[in-house]
Amino acid sequence: MARSPAISYQALLDLETNPVPESLRENTNTFLGSGALSTDRYLSADYYQREKANLWSRVWQVVCRETEIAKPGDFYTHEIADKSIFVMRTESLQIKGYLNACLHRGRQLKSGAGNSAGIKCPFHGFSWNREGAFLGAPCQWDFPHIDSDNFDLPEVKVESWGGWIFINMDPECESLAQYMGVMPQHFERWTPEDTYKGLHLKKVLRCNWKLAHEAFIESYHTVATHPQLLLYTADANSQYDCFNENISRTITPMGLISPHLPNATQQQSADQWLSVNEVLSDDRLKKVPEGKTAREFLGEMNIRRFSELYQKDMASIATHSEVLDAILYSVFPNFAPWAGFRPNLTYRFLPFEDDHEQCTMEIFLMMRYPESEPRPRDCATIFVGADQSFAETDGVAEGLARVFDQDFSNLPQIHKGLKSLESGEIQLGNYQEVRIRHFHNTLDKYMQRS
Prior knowledge:
There is one protein chain. This protein is an alpha+beta fold. Helices cover 26% and strands 24% of the residues. The chain has 14 helices and 20 strands. It has helices at residues 9-13, 22-25, 40-43, 45-54, 176-180, 183-187, 209-214, 222-225, 266-276, 281-284, 294-310, 320-324, 398-418, 434-447; strands at residues 37-38, 61-65, 74-80, 83-89, 95-99, 113-115, 119-120, 127-128, 134-136, 155-161, 164-168, 196-205, 239-242, 247-252, 326-331, 335-339, 344-352, 355-367, 382-384, 425-426. The strands form 4 sheets. Strands 13-14-15-16-17-18-12-19 form an 8-stranded mixed beta sheet. Strands 2-11-10-5-4-3-6 form a 7-stranded antiparallel beta sheet, with no helix packed on it. β7 (119-120) and β8 form a beta hairpin. α9 (266-276) runs parallel beside α11 (294-310). The two termini are 35 Å apart.
């Protein structure tokens, strides 16, 4: 199997001084073949319609954070292609999910997020309680054919993991725990449930939703798309893992010079990392001590920073990998949380306005806080239009904006370029793009179901 001759991620773990969690030691070395993929998967309107029938109605997908519907009556709506669902907290603090349509004339019952005493259709006033039980309607004498005892709102499956609420429209679906395989065990150490949304961006992109997702599950593009990262991002050293059919992972070492820059120095690596990360100005002036690598220096710095931020001694707990590296998991089909002890990003990809040629990418910055302090409130969503860059968006750090805007500049050009591919096929690398092939293998299993 093709692998970079550069130092492996597992060899870097051998240099850690604190015990390395078993989850990071897993290395699946998956090979899934070298076959081409048809561009119809992205460009065909018929393929998109089949996705709506065979995929979105059968997979577990994230709606919101549990903290966003914390009180009885809190609700949050979720739009996926031509379907709408809302989740609501009941009197008993249970979370329920309902298909977002009035059983009278089909008007959507909820939009956005908020709190309500019950569920009342704005069109004619048919109403249900928070548990979905039918309460009645104006002029109910005109509906003798409706059995009030069997007119409850249709529910969808609801489960939670890591502080996120998931729904599944398939009544026969497997449990979320079965669906996620090793992932809950892997994340136990990093307690994603103990985080809050410090930033939530929702960006419209002119491309198929799968193209956006695929751009973030490989580091191969770094050398051409993000050259400013190469001094401290070991792109070609990345490890790619495929676990069960729904879970995959990329681990890209940071604080390590890319193999594409063989003559760079440790000090150049540290200086570049410090210049683009949000660290104190005094830290930006620090030099890599004699006999230390940039990775060791930056790892120790982050452990000190996070110990102060979380008011917890991280020096005896965290490995350098967990405070530096880009450890990105994916839950099929469209949810991608980063792992580790740093403030972590999480991604979600969805079709936009039921259009297979547009999508949204949501970027959540999940922040930790001291255990002795109350949980900060989740932030509001910032909507970013197709023609608006992150550099033009308030609240987005300069370094983060530059990287994402570089990615976004590729995506419409990929979608357009696929239409000019005479072969009608794309090629994938055997290792660095294995997660894309893994994704499509799973997608095929859904698309082939009747």
